[in-house]
Every structure is written in C-alpha cells, then in structure tokens.
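Sample entry copied in:
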Amino acid sequence: MATGRILLLEDDTNLGLILQEHLQLNGFDVTLCVDGEQGSATFAPGKFDLCLVDVMMPKRDGFSFAGDVRSRDNDIPLIFLTAKSMKEDRIQGFKIGCDDYITKPFSMEELMLRIRAVLKRCQGAGSAAAPDVFTIGEYHFDHNRQTLKRGTSQISLTPKEADLLRLLCLHVNQTLTREEALREVWESESYFSGRSMDVYISKLRKYLKDDPQVEIMGIHGKGFRLIVG
C-alpha cells in the first residue's frame, strides 16, 4: 500500500504544486484541488486518508469544505493550512473537527511531522493491527518468530532484517520510500543509516533469490518495491 492518499486544497497554484511534489516524493498519493467547491466535488468517503486544507480559498473556504466533509465522514483526518493565526480561527477549526492546524509560513519538515503524527494517531485508533505473518511467493515469513521458510528450509532473521522485510510486505507491489524505511526501522535518516539499510536489502534479496517470482526492486531516487508475481 502507499504511504497515504491525501486530498490537498490550496488556491495558490505555485504553493499547491510545491506541496504536491514534496508529498509525492515522500510516498503519498496526492490529489490537488484549487478551491473548496472542487474539493467537495472530489472528496468521497474512503477515497482519501487525510485532507490538507487551506482555509482562505475562493468560492468556498476551508471551514465550509471541512463542514461538508464532516457531514459525510466523521473519521477522516483534517489538517488546516492558513495564514491566519487568530485564536478564534483555530477554535473554529477545532470545533468543526480538524485534527491539526498549521500557520503559514511553515517548513516542509514540520508539515511532514504533523501529517505523520495525525495519520499514526487516527489509523492506530480506527484500524486493526497490521499482520505479522506473510506469504511471499513460495516463502512463509513470520515477523514475530523472525523466520523465513521455504519448503523444509528455514532462515533465522535478525530483528532489523525482520522489521525491514515486514515493512516491504506491508507495501507489497508498491514503493516503500527510503525515508519511511529509515524512520520505521532505523529511527534515523542519516547517511550511515542509509548505507546500513542498503546492506540489509542485499541480504534480503539473497534470502528470497530461490523464487523467481519474488524480487526486491530498487526504485531510483525513491526506495524499494517488493514484487511478488
């Protein structure tokens, strides 16, 4: 699966495209709308994982859009982006049911941290725990036991090997970004953590080499994809 599907509402064309590109580089699937009316027409319950909404927009503002969303879906996370910093505006946003409120100008790093925190909080509260046992072609992978089996042969994995393989399985046939893998498994995005991850990817490729229908493909500039035919 992808990192998440975001409906982005931003009437500033340049900022909207910058935000969309940055979010996509971080593994999100982003749909960009330029006003509240277009956003309301695009929104459908279950189609998106989060709405990132500029408050001041033509035709229909972010508060009006959010009210419409809340009447159709009470659970989807909402984050407001606004140039306003007045206490009354923040109170109005939270009364409507937003999950966070970011005042412009903001850094991309802050935005990503806010998005991940909201998604983690909301998905953790409303979804079942992710699985720990997987079938990967001819292989049986048990994350808790840290074992990878094929027929009568079994490989004992290290904790990091098991964690990384589980993350790849959760994103099977889709791109796992380097950033997400480093955050989840190494809790660091440093150069040395990146080099360490590349070594572990090579090890996992060797473990899975006996099934030609299974491959860990490198996606240039983005990350990795576990392909299961």
About this structure: Residues 186 and 193 are 7 Å apart (CA to CA).
